[in-house]
Automatic annotation (TrEMBL):
This is Mechanosensitive ion channel. The lineage of its organism: Bacteria, Pseudomonadati, Pseudomonadota, Alphaproteobacteria, Hyphomicrobiales. It holds the Pfam family MS_channel_2nd. Residues 576-663 form the Mechanosensitive ion channel MscS C-terminal domain. Residues 682-703 are annotated as: Disordered. Residues 464-504 form the Mechanosensitive ion channel transmembrane helices 2/3 domain. It is a multi-pass membrane protein.
């Protein structure tokens, strides 16, 4: 072989080398193809294998219990014997020294901040912002003291404890058994304020706050002792594998589920808060959340154990506990979000029920947007804890399925945010343009002043924008999933064309409504006559009007069926009143009395802003068989004429009585011959008969 190679030139040697490499790659590919050609287990077989492994793991942990207790006792014995952390008396002395130094430093810090603490203790907040400020200050002081405690403990341990093993065990004991429970207690005092209800950031009763505080503080004390013992067992070489983690995790999760079950009603109240405008959706979610939390905690523990049985160690006990903490404290975060929103939402603009409804809609939109942001944060945090970077999945280096799925969710979120922003903008404009509510004393039998043109058109604009957002979001989301939306667009065009030809009446109604709105022919709240149908406009849709009649009936009038439209509430209203007085009444005197009444009413505070022209007489309007009909008129803003009319009727009656003027009434006069000799009873009988005859003659005319 060497002689053969020596006889070849360098180029031939290089070509031969390339050929050998190609032959090796071909052989490797054949081997891989052969291995791929072997039958692969089905999905059902894989699931059966996974569940079988999970069951074997659980049985193995229970069988390993004696070894666990043996290892635990052996680790404690090694600790007492001094083979883990050095001589026990030196270890205990080191722990005592570290604790003494840490507590002394923390005590000194607390003495320096005693004035601030006393001020917080003696002060009662008057607003949520002040409450957050006081609680945050108190939490900062507590955490600052704990930070000083930890720093001094580490410094003293490094300076005074010379044996590394003793120092390590002593610091672990201080951290797990002392520092961790105190840190959790400080955080719970910030969230629950168990001993000061006026500083509580959540709507929880004292029993719930104290129960949660005691339960979780005790839980983390037990967890700290468990983690310390686990470290001791590992150092002593007595680690029982995953059995210790299995049973400690089971106990911790069972403890948390029991705490949530006990405080489920209190957690529901925390989610509901103290708002008086809770929605039905919020109430259902508040009642459902404790049970969801318990189910999620059980699922999370099973997921951790199941992945561990498959050899996947990504979901550790610490990560599982962090996920549980996020789920359990989500109601507190939601309450915090609503508290922040209550200070961010701008104050109500305008007056009246429409402005109040718009302000409430604005508040709900802010809360929903904040909740979407909170939910996104929780999902990202849970994914990060589980080892999944959901944001990186949308990048170019992620898989196609994962990237498209993330972008699909982002499109849905963007569409929802656009929907809420539309609601916010419309609600803000409605609140500004809505007139104040009419007085309950107004006899608005013909409606009052309508809303502005903006307030009339905005609801229709909102519907159009929301439909557009919904359609675009759906199409973009479907296209991101790989669905071809071109046939959908073509089908929509065909359907629209078919509707245009087949539903001519509908098209006529919509087009007529567009021109009515362009002409500003009517507005919400105005009283109109549509050619025989009268009423106040309560609702405007794309194809019809909803009118409320004077007797309460609701009329639905399509735009295309309105031959003409009379608006009785635009700009100003003239009301004319008629009064019948006897034939011998001084009409000029009546005119002067009417003028004086009009001037007096113009000076009244409740009417002077609404009357555009005062009440005054117009002279004789008619003469009938009863008396002289005199007329007066006045001009007011739309909807204000009825209150003025009541006042005029009252004052006319008073003034007529004061001036000896009577209202004319129908009389029956019976003329008897002069020589008729009748007594009083006979005269009364004749008068009654004549009155009855007159009534009989006038009855058909009255009908």
């Amino acid at each position: 072989m060497e002689k053969l190679v020596s006889d070849l030139d360098p180029e031939q040697v290089e070509a031969l080398t390339d050929l050998m490499l190609l032959l090796q790659e071909s052989a490797a590919n054949k081997t891989s193809v052969t291995s791929l050609g072997e039958p692969q287990p089905s999905l059902l077989e894989q699931l059966q294998s996974a569940f079988s492994g999970f069951g074997d793991m659980v049985v193995g942990h229970f069988k390993n219990l004696p070894a666990l207790f043996t290892g635990l006792f052996a680790g404690i014995a090694a600790l007492l014997a001094g083979s883990v952390g050095g001589p026990i008396h030196i270890l205990i002395g080191s722990i005592a020294l570290i604790l003494a130094a840490g507590f002394a430093a923390e005590f000194l810090v607390n003495r320096l901040t005693a004035a601030r603490r006393d001020k917080i203790q003696a002060r009662s907040p008057e607003s949520l912002f002040e409450t957050v400020k006081l609680v945050s200050t108190r939490a900062g002081l507590d955490l600052g003291g704990l930070l000083v405690f930890a720093i001094v403990a580490v410094i003293v341990a490094r300076a005074a404890v010379f044996d590394p093993a003793t120092r390590s065990v002593a610091l672990q004991a201080v951290f797990w058994i002392v520092f961790l429970p105190r840190l959790v207690a400080a955080l719970l005092r910030f969230a629950l304020a168990p001993h000061r209800s006026e500083l509580r950031l959540v709507t929880a009763d004292d029993e719930t706050a104290k129960s949660l505080y005691r339960s979780f503080t005790t839980l983390f004390a037990v967890v700290g002792v468990a983690f310390f013992l686990r470290n001791i067992m590992q150092v002593a070489g007595q680690d029982a594998g995953g059995t210790f983690r299995f049973f400690v995790g089971f106990g911790v999760n069972a403890w948390i589920i029991a705490v949530i079950w006990k405080a489920r009603h209190g957690l529901t109240n925390i989610i509901l808060g103290d708002d008086g405008d809770t929605t039905s959706g919020l109430e259902r979610m508040a009642r459902f959340w404790p049970y969801f939390s318990m189910a999620f905690i059980a699922f999370n523990w099973l997921l951790v154990q199941f992945t561990a049985s498959m050899g996947v160690e990504a979901l550790t006990a610490g990560r599982s506990l962090a996920v549980i903490a996020l789920v359990v404290f989500a109601p507190f975060l939601d309450t915090m979000v609503r508290g922040i929103v209550s200070h961010v939402v701008p104050p109500m603009q305008g007056d009246g029920p429409v402005a109040e409804a718009a302000h409430m809609q604005t508040r709900h939109s802010y809360v929903r947007i904040a909740r979407v942001a909170l939910l996104a944060f929780l999902v990202l945090m849970v994914g990060r804890i589980y080892g999944l970077n959901l944001l990186a999945l949308g990048a170019n280096d992620g898989s196609a399925v994962a990237r498209n799925s993330v972008i699909f969710l982002l499109i849905l979120a963007a569409g929802y945010l656009a929907w809420e922003i539309t609601n916010l903008w419309v609600a803000h404009q409605l609140a500004k343009d809505s007139p104040p509510a009419q007085s309950e004393d107004d006899d608005a039998e013909m409606g009052g002043a309508g809303k502005s043109r903006t307030a009339t058109i905005l609801p229709l604009i909102r519907i159009i924008l929301q439909i557009t957002i919904l359609v675009l979001t759906a199409l973009l989301a479907l296209s991101q999933l790989g669905i071809n939306i071109t046939p959908l667009l073509a089908g929509a065009g065909v359907v629209g064309l078919a509707v245009g030809f087949g539903a001519q009446t509908l098209v006529k109604d919509v087009v007529s409504g567009i021109f009515f709105l362009m002409d500003d022919a009517f507005r919400l709240g105005e009283f109109i006559d549509t050619g025989g149908t009268q009423g106040s406009i309560e609702k405007i849709s794309i194809r019809s009007l909803q009118l409320r009649g004077t007797r309460g009936a609701v009329h639905i009038v399509p735009y295309g069926e309105i031959p003409k439209l009379t608006n009785l509430s635009r700009d100003w209203v003239i009301m004319k009143l008629k009064f019948t007085v006897p034939f011998d009444t001084d009409v000029e005197k009546v005119r002067k009395l009417f003028k004086r009444i009009g001037q007096d009413i113009m000076e009244m505070e409740e009417f002077k802003e609404d009357i555009l022209a005062p009440f005054k007489g117009q002279g004789v309007a008619d003469v009938d068989d009863v008396g002289i009909v005199v007329r007066g008129k006045f001009t007011t803003k739309p909807g204000k004429q009825f209150g003025v009319r009541k006042e005029i009727y009252k004052r006319v009656q008073q003034v007529f009585e004061e001036n000896g003027i009577q209202f004319a009434r129908k009389e029956v006069r019976v003329q008897l011959p002069e020589n008729t000799d009748l007594d009083d009873k006979q005269k009364e009988a004749v008068a009654a008969g004549a009155a009855a005859a007159a009534a009989t003659e006038t009855k058909p005319a009255a009908q």
